[in-house]
Automatic annotation (TrEMBL):
Gene3D superfamilies: Winged helix-like DNA-binding domain superfamily/Winged helix DNA-binding domain. Keywords: DNA-binding, Transcription, Transcription regulation. It holds the Pfam family MarR_2. It comes from the Bacteria. Residues 14-147 form the HTH marR-type domain. It comes from Paenibacillus sacheonensis. This is MarR family transcriptional regulator. One of its GO terms (molecular function) is DNA binding. GO terms for biological process: response to stress.
Length: 150
């Protein structure tokens, strides 16, 4: 039987780096969530609205689910409060009436227009610990890590 202490002390560089990345990411996401919460919403809802906007304002729920990494059932549940709040609307697909599309409403567009600048300023402020060249290098390293497959 392996001693648990082998996994909690004196970790290899790869494991220490991984956990440093996780902890830093959690702190940055926490700062972003604090901003969203202070403005009466949350990052998950904003992420959905942003993905719809990135798709041109309208998208199939299945495609939206794939973009944010949730199941089709979960995206359906996540869209309910956004529709109730008037930030999105769903309608029949223009070419296939069996499908539904979800679109940003004018209120959803206004919410993004009002809140995204402040959130982006929060993120920029938190990233000031790195110089521009360091951020470019860090982004390149993250991209390399994302592309690596065993």
């Amino acid at each position: 039987m392996t001693d648990i202490q082998d996994y909690v002390k004196e970790q290899p560089l790869e494991v220490r780096t991984f956990f440093a990345l996780v902890e830093t990411t959690a702190a940055l996401v926490g700062a972003s969530e604090k901003y969203w919460s202070a403005n009466g919403t949350n990052g998950a809802r904003i992420r959905i609205l942003v993905e719809i906007a990135k798709a041109g304002g309208s998208i199939l729920p299945s495609e939206l689910a794939a973009r944010i990494g949730v199941t089709k059932a979960n995206i359906s549940v996540m869209l309910i409060p956004l529709e109730e709040l008037g930030y999105v609307r769903s309608s029949s697909h223009p070419e296939d009436g069996r499908k539904r599309t979800v679109a940003l409403s004018p209120d959803g567009e206004r919410l993004l227009s009002d809140l995204l600048p402040g959130n982006r300023a929060t993120i920029v402020s938190r990233m000031k610990g790195l110089e521009e060249a360091e951020m470019i290098q860090f982004l390149a390293l993250l991209t390399k890590l994302q592309r690596y497959e065993e």
